[in-house]
Design goal:
Elements: H1 3-16, H2 20-29, E1 45-62, H3 63-67, E2 75-76, E3 92-108, E4 114-130, E5 149-158, H4 161-170, E6 175-177, E7 182-187, E8 195-201, E9 210-217, E10 228-237, E11 242-256, E12 264-267, H5 272-277, E13 281-283, E14 287-293, E15 303-310
Parallel strand pairs: 5-6, 5-10
Antiparallel strand pairs: 1-3, 1-14, 1-15, 2-4, 3-4, 4-5, 7-8, 8-9, 9-12, 10-11, 11-14, 11-15, 12-13
Helix pairs in contact: 1-2
Length: about 300
């Protein structure tokens, strides 16, 4: 046994009498290049959204380009995998762009500290993935990973410090606190539930800075006519192979088709998202919709921002 190994072993044996749990962890780490005990601890938070409206859509992109944006071990779904089969569908995937504006958000951390922010916005970008080798989340349809939507997080920006804190504590990657996000909806005809003009702007020099503009089918509290329930998980995996998810149970969401060709995602030349969609301005070429998520009152958990352990 060389001197370095002998000293390490002696330290472990000494620590056994001080703290057996630390000693055991240390013993397991001997000879390993990385050890979870040396990583920053991650904690979960409960999240509740209040009265949110959204715009979401998909833009068809080369699967190889999308695959290059996610860590090794995570498989991007092609359109074929998602059930859209045609000549060439094996080679293309979907870039998901989603923006929400909420009246309030409430976050409860692992120490039961409650934080609330009013009038907040979120903009996130991702791509659908295969989750067969990912740990199970809190919300699922089959106690494994049977969510209706499983999206890898390429970018998740929010104006809410409370929500940003929840994502950071759970270890979600590619996140940013951006208090300058703009999400404005202007009713085109206040007397009817018809269309409204949407303007979303994500300022800054992020590779996923973007804007969304155009007339959308109106989705507000006044125009909410009842909707669907579904589960959506937004994933990430860090450099130490730890998986994190925003596991979200959505209840009674209105989701209506927008005037797809008239709604555009605008990006900055040279950014990653610009290269993925192949232009400075793109319509939603996969699907698009506007939605409204009613509140059940703050304190009813909609989401768990959670750390889930190692990628299988």
């Amino acid at each position: 046994m060389d001197t370095k190994t002998e000293n390490s072993t002696n330290n472990v044996l000494t620590n056994t009498f001080r703290n057996p749990r630390i000693a055991l962890a240390g013993a397991l780490c001997l000879g390993l290049s990385a050890c979870y005990t040396n990583l920053a601890p991650l904690t979960n938070s409960d999240v509740d959204f209040s009265n949110c409206r959204e715009i979401a859509g998909g833009i068809v992109a080369a699967k190889a380009d999308l695959q290059a944006q996610v860590p090794e071990g995570v498989a991007v779904n092609s359109l074929t995998d998602m059930g859209f089969v045609f000549d060439g569908s094996d080679d293309v995937g979907m870039l998901i762009v989603r923006s929400l504006a909420c009246e309030a958000i409430q976050v409860t951390d692992a120490k039961d500290t409650v934080s609330t922010d009013d009038n907040v916005a979120f903009v996130h970008v991702g791509t659908p993935i295969n989750v067969a080798n990912l740990p199970a989340t809190t919300y699922s349809n089959d106690s494994v990973n049977g969510a209706d939507f499983n999206i890898y997080t390429l970018s998740y920006q929010t104006s809410s410090p409370a929500y940003f804190g929840a994502m950071k504590r759970a270890g979600l990657q590619n996140i940013a606190l951006n208090e300058g996000i703009v999400n404005v909806l202007t009713d085109n005809d206040p007397n009817t539930c018809s269309t409204a003009n949407l303007k979303v702007h994500v300022p800054g020099d992020s590779d996923y800075a973007l804007g969304i503009t155009g007339d959308v089918v109106e989705a507000t509290a006044e125009c909410h006519v009842g909707g669907a329930d579904f589960i959506a998980n937004w994933w990430s995996v860090d450099g130490s192979n730890r998986a994190t998810a925003l596991s979200n149970e959505v209840i009674d969401q209105t989701f209506t088709d927008t005037a797809g060709p008239d709604v555009f995602v605008v990006t900055n030349e040279g950014t990653t998202i610009n290269k993925l969609i192949g232009s400075d301005r793109s319509a939603f070429t996969g699907f698009s919709g506007s939605g409204y998520l009613p509140s059940e009152g703050l304190g009813n958990i909609d989401m768990v921002a959670e750390t889930l352990g190692a990628l299988n």
